[in-house]
Amino acid sequence: MVKFIDSWFVVAAFSAFLFNTNASKLPPLEILADSIPPEAITETEGSSTLSSDGSAPALYPTLAQNSTAGSRRGSIGSYDAGYAATVNPLVIKGNRFFDSVTGDYFAIRGVNYYPRPNAGPLDKNNLDLFSNDFKHIWNRDLPEFTALNANVIRLYSVDPDVDHSEFMCALQVEGIYVVVDLGANCEGCEITADAAPACYPASYKTRGEKIIKQFARYDNVMAFSGGNEINHRTGGNPWTWNAPCQKKFIRDMRAFLQSCSSLRQVPVGLVVADTDRDANALYYNCRTDESDKLENAQWYGINTYVHCDDISDPTKATGFNLLRDSFKSYDYSIPVVLTEFGCVSPSFPTVDGYQAQRTFHDAAFMNLPEYSDYFAGGIAFEYSTENANSVSTSAYPFKTYGPQNYGLGYLSPKDCTDSGANCTFERFPNFEFLAEAYASYDGSSEPTLSNYQVPANHEASSTCINGSPILQEFTWESDSSSSEVCPTLDDSHFQCSVPLISVSPVTGAPFLLNSMLVTGEGIESLPTRSGDDATFQPPATPAPTTFTRGSS
């Protein structure tokens, strides 16, 4: 049965027509149908898959089988009448991401986001700057993501005890997905440098589950990362030193998600530094216990800086092609994301007085068909140069080459704090190079969710190499720690405010705005929809919590 949308649908559709909706950022507004029939959903090996006709993904383990017409909260496309989605949840099929509703292939074109100011109390590593309390920071940067032609941002740490609803909803209306890291370098908040099993404190399990409960509610969460570069924290020991802790944590987070039928099954993976490439890649996609279908990661991120010169011909990009060939040889069954890329080097040109401006040719060709069989896309490092890291080799305004001058721009003025003296974002020339590279993407030859046939050599998880640590041989503190209570059906999906059409101040592209319609003649109020949830009331914001960030 089709559920017809009231006058809000008419207003939104008409507004979209007036503003010439950009389909690359906002999917077409559609009449919302009831959830997919339960017979279209199957479960294999603890993860969602497609029915034989490839009609729809199972985003929730059991919920769709219990849903009925008119009871849509928490189901696929779970929006009450009068609401429309600005992004659709993503799903994985084989080693690719797809839009779960349109079926389009999703090529990741992202940026790592940590807007650290130049001075003051927020000039620290790894604070959570994404809560409602810091709207003055992230609201400044939202139009820049759109201007960059990005569709993903990556966050290094979040506080599970504060409200991020305004941030996540603002990203939704700009069409931006988020990779959320579950770790941070507060005490008990990450995989440590200790040997397994001590490197995995039970408190990290609790933290991870709390973040999952909070963020799985948002349709624009692309994935969870179980950690960032823990293979750089071995103290000179082999990669096996703390890798079992990372693998066990991923397994625990997958088990928690699977146990909560109300939660969307957001994929859980990890991010590693590009060392011991073969061993790490194979270990995290293998099962040391073949009967444990949750042991391997669901996606794999690698921070890799292999394209360090101004070569625009992909056939001559030696380092990048060696990386591609490595993953080609693994016959990988899960998506691979270049979670940090963008080498800095003095070999890049000086542009408008700024030295070593990265030309980002790798950002243009990483999503070409000859690479998309092995890479799901990439996330450039990083949005803004961090003054504290760069000042010793390239000081403000960062015009000279420096090994830590990774920004697509910088924050100004020199002593801005974003806590009383707000910063402005100034673009480097390399911002425009990356924007052009992302804009050049052409996905017309890529398969869709329904017609993509996973190649036989990409179907199975990897084979563990000799010497791979076996998880069952350790006694894990987390096994004695109780899990978080699963959220109720009502709490499992966060409905952002009633959306209406507005226009991005940077690109002129439409986006959605609550309760007001911005037109060329000004702002005009529109009537609120009747019903208990007609107007979104954000939850009370706790006092800001700060903690420091791990390595990046």
TrEMBL record:
Keyword annotations: Disulfide bond, Glycoprotein, Signal
Skewed-composition ranges (Low complexity): 534-552
A GO molecular-function descriptor: 1,3-beta-glucanosyltransferase activity
GO BP terms, alphabetized: cell wall (1->3)-beta-D-glucan biosynthetic process
Gene Ontology, cellular component aspect: plasma membrane
Pfam family, any one: Glyco_hydro_72
Signal sequence extent: 1-23
Region (Disordered): 524-552
Domain of life where this protein originates: Eukaryota
InterPro entries, sorted: GH, Glucanosyltransferase
Stated family: Belongs to the glycosyl hydrolase 72 family.
UniProt name for this protein: Unnamed protein product
Gene source species: Phytophthora fragariaefolia
